[in-house]
Amino acid sequence: MEKSNPTISRISTTDGEELSVAKGKYRILIGGEQTNGSYAVIEMRIPSNGGPAPHSHDQIQESFYVAEGEIEFSTESGKLLARKGDFINIPLEGGAHAFKNISDTTALLICTVIPAGLDNMFKEISKVASPEEARSIGEKKYGIRFYPPNFLD
């Protein structure tokens, strides 16, 4: 049996598709099309007071490394404050969650999703005009469940 020779890749600071999502700037570092759908890594620049509404996705594991700033993660079991260097894991069937940048400066998260898919959703919703359209795409095409803004308070 012949062994394949996969190519090691480097993604520079100027590579990757930059998107506007939930008032933040997301950059797809590596998407599902490069990983055969197994995972995606997204750089997320979240402005002060920015972040997504409460939501859940049972079939996607999501993790976040906080590279800059302070992010408050809200979950069904309470709130977690994540600072630079912290790592947050949302397991499969991890329940409703949201996050918000509580610092005065832009926060930087490195998000990994397994399997890939949210990267494609971010690409799609970055092209629509309204939050309602984005929500509809997330729900109907990607199986995201959204909750009222105060759901995790």
Automatic annotation (TrEMBL):
It comes from the Bacteria. Pfam families: Cupin_2. Residues 44-112 form the Cupin type-2 domain. This is Cupin domain-containing protein. The lineage of its organism: Bacteria, Pseudomonadati, Bacteroidota, Sphingobacteriia, Sphingobacteriales.
